[in-house]
């Protein structure tokens, strides 16, 4: 029986090295997981964006860096996502050029209006859109940032308009005027008459000097709810002269009481004889 010759030591070493290299490049090497960046890793280099989000991040606070920035160079060449990756399903989100107003995505509600931003504003504020379109006024032709220079901030009317009288404050304007329908003037019955008198001076002077019961009423009590509304006397009064037959001769109240703001003033030419 012939004996088997042993391999030399260098041969054994070469064989072992070959086996090791083969295993290193086998499928087991592909199962090694790559390390994943965390938000704590991002802050080590990018300190500004996390600080911005902490102060004014809005809903972006709950997203985290990797929620928007998927990957990092050199693995991913463009780690900055498009807004439409998350924001979709509303007319406002269909618009392009998000960064023209939302300059910093890490402070999304710090909005700076650029150029004609009217269409962008009206894509969210639909009620105001209808009011401006259905009730034409000088406000309808303005670009929204002309008044709203800061998002979600309502300006004082007196920034552009003079009050009706020196006694009126800026807050008084909204008691009668609504900014998006300024020509439709509505008010409550308790609105002070001095506001009306700033334009209707003579009417208020006559009313204030009158000795009739009307003197105790506000202008808005008779001219109810809407500007330029002239009431019918019979809205409040029954026909007081019916029993003495005056109504037969004078069918309209203003044939005698021709000054509604002073009912005790009778027209001399029209007094019953």
TrEMBL record:
Could you tell me the keywords of this UniProt record?
Electron transport, Heme, Iron, Metal-binding, Signal, Transport
Task: Tell me the first and last residues of the signal peptide.
Answer: 1-29
Has keyword Nuclease?
A: no
Has UniProt tagged this entry with the keyword Iron?
Answer: yes
Xref: InterPro entries:
Multihaem_cyt_sf, NapC/NirT_cytc_sf
**One Gene Ontology term of the molecular function aspect:** metal ion binding
Q: Supply the name of the protein.
A: Uncharacterized protein
Species this chain originates from:
Candidatus Sulfobium mesophilum
Lineage, highest ranks first = Bacteria, Pseudomonadati, Nitrospirota, Nitrospiria, Nitrospirales
């Amino acid at each position: 029986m012939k004996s088997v010759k042993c391999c030399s030591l260098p041969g054994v070493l070469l064989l072992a090295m070959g086996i090791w290299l083969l295993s290193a490049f086998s499928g087991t090497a592909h199962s090694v997981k790559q390390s994943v960046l965390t938000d704590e890793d991002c802050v080590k280099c990018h300190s500004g964006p996390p600080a911005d989000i902490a102060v004014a991040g809005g809903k972006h606070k709950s997203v985290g860096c990797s929620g928007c920035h998927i990957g990092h160079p050199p693995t991913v060449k463009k780690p900055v996502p498009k807004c439409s990756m998350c924001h979709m399903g509303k007319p406002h989100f269909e618009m392009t050029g998000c960064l023209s107003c939302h300059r910093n995505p890490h402070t999304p509600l710090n909005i700076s209006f650029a150029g004609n931003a009217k269409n962008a504003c009206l894509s969210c504020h639909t009620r105001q859109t209808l009011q401006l379109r259905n009730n034409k006024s000088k406000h309808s032709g303005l670009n929204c940032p002309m008044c709203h220079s800061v998002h979600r901030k309502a300006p004082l009317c007196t920034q552009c308009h003079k009050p009706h009288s020196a006694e009126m404050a800026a807050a008084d304007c909204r008691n009668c005027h609504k900014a998006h329908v300024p020509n439709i003037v509505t008010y409550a019955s308790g609105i002070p008459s001095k506001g009306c008198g700033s334009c209707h001076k003579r009417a208020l002077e006559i009313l204030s000097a009158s000795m009739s019961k009307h003197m105790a009423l506000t202008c808005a009590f008779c001219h109810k709810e809407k500007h330029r509304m002239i009431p019918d006397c019979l809205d409040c009064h029954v026909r007081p002269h019916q029993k003495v037959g005056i109504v037969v001769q004078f069918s309209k109240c203003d044939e005698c009481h021709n000054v509604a703001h002073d009912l005790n003033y009778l027209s001399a030419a029209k007094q019953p004889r």
